[in-house]
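Z., the sequence and structure:
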Amino acid sequence: MSDTSRKPHGRTAQRLETRQRVLDAAIAEFRATGMAEADVAAIAAAAGVARGTFYFHFPTKEHVLLALEEREEVRIARALTRFLTSPRDLATSLAKTIELVAAMERRLGTLLFKDLLAVHFSPTRPLTEEWREHPVIVLVAEMIERAHRRGEAQIAVDPYHSAVFFLLGLYGLLATTTTAAALRTVTLDNYLVTVLRSLEPR
């Protein structure tokens, strides 16, 4: 089957195109003002749709951030997957992960990145087994497992938990060093060293 035959057509294609316009307009508004201050009417106007159309696609402003989170995670996972097609040691693989996540923070801007993290870690999204399906977590867990098989790392806990701990720390460091570029560079370098040492075989 060709790519063309798999692409949506007619009303489905139109609905997806409209949703994308609304999402892009909402992201621009959130980046400028933050989610809390974002004006749905301004978003709808920028997207060229009625206010109700925004709520049709995104019942709340938080749903915009959930869609953005999914898009950014897929983007990072694709880049990381391409990077890992060649053999890499654990240090290089985790350093690339840090680089890609930091690039996302720069791409989104401080306000939007912090809003994204707030939704990601919201108490209304309790930890469930769904976290094992997040592609970046899966990739980092696989890095640790491969390093363990090579004798390069120990697995003291479930590698998925190790991946989550690594990413939680990374997000936290990025969120708290947004205005201190020099400190961020040193902190992230030290963080990588600390993580690698925690995984060293005993």
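Residues 10-33 form the longest helix (24 residues). The chain has a mean pLDDT of 89.

Let me know what you think.
H.
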